[in-house]
Amino acid sequence: MKHARTAALSLSLLALVAVLxxxxxxxxxxxxxxLTGGPHESLAATSKALSRADQTTVRVAVTSSPxxxxxxxxxxxxQLRPVGSDKVLSRGQSLGxxxxxxxxxxxxxxxxxxxxxxxxxxxxxxxxxxVNGHEYRGNLRLFRRSGGGVLAVNVLPLGDYLASVVxxxxxxxxxxxxxxxxxxxxxxxxxxxxxxxxxxxxxDLFASTSSQKxxxxxxxxxxxxxxxxxxxxxxxxxxTTGMVCTYQGRLFRTYYSATCGGHTTQGNAVFxxxxxALKSVPCDFCREAKLYRWxxxxxxxxxxxxLKAYFRSEGKTLEKLQSIKLASxxxxxxxxxxxxxxxxxxxxxxxxxxTLRRQLSVSTLYSPFFSISETGKSSTLHFExxxxxxxxxxxxxxxxxxxxLGKTCYEIVRYYYSxxxxxxxx
Length: 426
Description:
The chain is of the alpha+beta class. The protein contains eight helices and 26 strands. Helices cover 22% and strands 28% of the residues. The two termini are 28 Å apart. Residues 1-47 have low confidence and may be disordered.
């Protein structure tokens, strides 16, 4: 269901865009646009304050699914009120570590119960809300889901969200220009999701790599507190304020992955909503990545068990696994995702490498670009693959490599999204 806020944003994005055509590949100087600061002021000079686009509110699900219980604490003054209402149900100067769970008609926070199914925690200082060991900027919304689960959603300005995404997705060692490219791509991804009418009515994005990795302001790792953002990442957001990618005058889903392994993937081979800008391009810039090439072994019996269960769910029969052979595609190039033919000697079923990876182990098979062979004992399947992730769009390790070669963020973005333009939303 499309919300009034989302529809309004779609119109305002079109009204606010100041189009900026990126300079040719060989140029290094930052592009210029006709913006509020003057007809020839560079983008770098206009990026000292966050644009209105970066003040857009985003809603991030910080629990990937409804939980029976979440851990909550608040380091400063707060109010509890129904989502969308100014009515104050409760208030306090702080809240020590406590648990939140669903009741039959609302929530139980510590010992207090609130008979509402949509609850907002509004704070007067930010960051101050902790959820499951992560501290977040902005406010928090709690939703009681069917089945008695609690969904926690962080509500905050886009610029604050991006400051954490940049550090969560890409370390400072990757270089300033690579991280600026990451910010532009992450901003575009988030705004395209927000303006769309897909997904859940209560939130826009996940805090995991299902959308973009978002660790919040800081988080606990055992006895340590680790930063989820930094002054460096906030500066990256300021330096790229409002900058997004467009293709044929529209925002698009700027997919990206960790390491392409030498060649990015044709977007529509993986995602049904991929635009033509997501072309397959050669990329040897990620050669220094640990997972540029990888190997893994899995017991054949384990693979057989998982494939039997998968094909059974698809209404197909698989008896004793005889062979898995490449049926189409080239694991060494990224124009399409390979397919495999799985045979038990009597029947053969085809399965994409992406589905095979999900069924077997995404933590062992780092990408869907691999070959399969049997070891000498025939009891183990040997996988040899390249890259980490789906390899569509920007390659993060490739962006690092290009940054080290002196490429600008504009050149990096243009390389991975062919025909796209970078514009600045005022």
